[in-house]
What we know:
heterodimer, A: mainly beta, 7-stranded mixed sheet, 4-stranded antiparallel sheet, globular, B: mainly beta, 5-stranded antiparallel sheet, about 55% strand
Amino acid sequence: DAGVIQSPRHEVTEMGQEVTLRCKPISGHDYLFWYRQTMMRGLELLIYFNNNVPIDDSGMPEDRFSAKMPNASFSTLKIQPSEPRDSAVYFCASGDSVRYGYTFGSGTRLTVV
Amino acid sequence: QQQVKQSPQSLIVQKGGISIINCAYENTAFDYFPWYQQFPGKGPALLIAIRPDVSEKKEGRFTISFNKSAKQFSLHIMDSQPGDSATYFCAASRAVSSGSARQLTFGSGTQLTVLP
C-alpha cells in the first residue's frame, strides 16, 4: 500500500493566484480529511468527506477555499484567490469507520508570496 | 469543550531518560485518545491509542496513562532515544454517530529533542 499520496509536495505561488492541492486516499478508505497545520494554530480540520460526499466543512476558513471529491480515489483542495496568510502545510488523511486511526499523507507545503 | 490542552510545548531529554507529555480534555463524550508522532517533512503517524475503559496501555517503550476522573492522559517514552526526536500530538475523538468517522481534536503538539 502506497499510503495517502499528496501532490505537489511544495507549492510557491503569488498572492491572488489559484492553488490546487491533490490527494489520493488509501484504497478502501471511505473517509477523507483535509487538515491545515501552522505554528500558530496547530492542526486544524478543514473539511471531511464520507463516500465522496462532504459531511462537515465548518473548518473551511473562507469562501476562497473549496474542496471536491469526484471519486473514491481523488480529492482536491482549491484556494482562489490565494493570500499570504494561507501559507501552511496542508495534510490529507484517510480512514474508515471500522478502524479508528487515520493515515496522513506527507503534506503539501504552500507558500504564498 | 472541544479543546485538548497539551504540555509542555517543548521538551529536551537526555538519551536513556523518560519523556513525559501531558494532555487534558474537557468533553466527557471523548472516548478514544490517540497519540501521533510527526517527523519533519512528514505527516502525523499514529503511535499508540487508548480507550477510557483502561488506565494504561503499553507498546514497547511507549506507555499511555489515562485518568478518567481527572480527564487527563499522558504519554511516557521510556529509555528515550535520539530517534524519538519528533513532534508529538495528543488527540481525542468521539463518534458523531454510529458507523461515522471519528473526528480528531488535536493538542497543540510537543517538540521532543533527545540528546545523544
